[in-house]
Design brief:
Blueprint (H helix, E strand, L loop, with lengths): L16 E7 L2 E10 L8 E9 L8 H15 L3 E6 L2 H9 L3 E3 L28 E5 L5
Parallel strand pairs: 3-4
Antiparallel strand pairs: 1-2, 2-3, 4-6, 5-6
Length: 139
């Protein structure tokens, strides 16, 4: 239902944690996250996909849906990161108190090893992306 509407590959990582967004009884959004294991971060996850069906794009659903998925992870005691090339989502996160920029934000990623990740798009080492950590609302 969603795979033809995302600019990346249409497959998902087999360990993806998947979410759907429903509005007025209609499925309108899909999101996925994956664990982000490395030697420095513990209990960290990252966004893997956010897709809003075309009839519902431009209404602010994507950014709020992404916030909701991130908040679920934060409530579970996990850290949550996300990188996007989508200008509207990136600019939303730049202004939102719920997200903080990482050291890779708006920087050309020369450390990216996956040169064939994007179908019909440049890899991240040829375009600047927004990179943020979800910190949630101040309590």
């Amino acid at each position: 239902m969603f795979k033809e509407h995302h600019y990346l590959r249409d497959d998902l990582h087999k360990s993806s944690r998947c979410f759907v967004g429903v509005w007025n009884g209609q499925i309108v959004a899909f999101g996925a996250s994956i664990a982000m294991p490395n030697g420095y971060l513990k209990h960290a996850w990252r966004g893997h996909r956010t897709v809003i069906l075309p009839d519902y794009q431009g209404m602010g659903i994507g950014v709020k849906f992404s916030d909701g998925i991130a908040q679920i992870h934060l409530d579970e005691g996990k850290r949550y990161f996300s990188r996007t090339a989508h200008p509207r989502m990136g600019l939303y996160r730049e202004k939102s108190p719920l997200w903080k920029a990482t050291s890779k934000n708006k920087r050309l990623r020369t450390d990216v090893k996956h040169l064939n990740v994007f179908k019909n798009h440049y890899a991240d080492n040829k375009r600047v992306c927004f990179s943020h950590e979800y910190v949630g609302a101040s309590k």
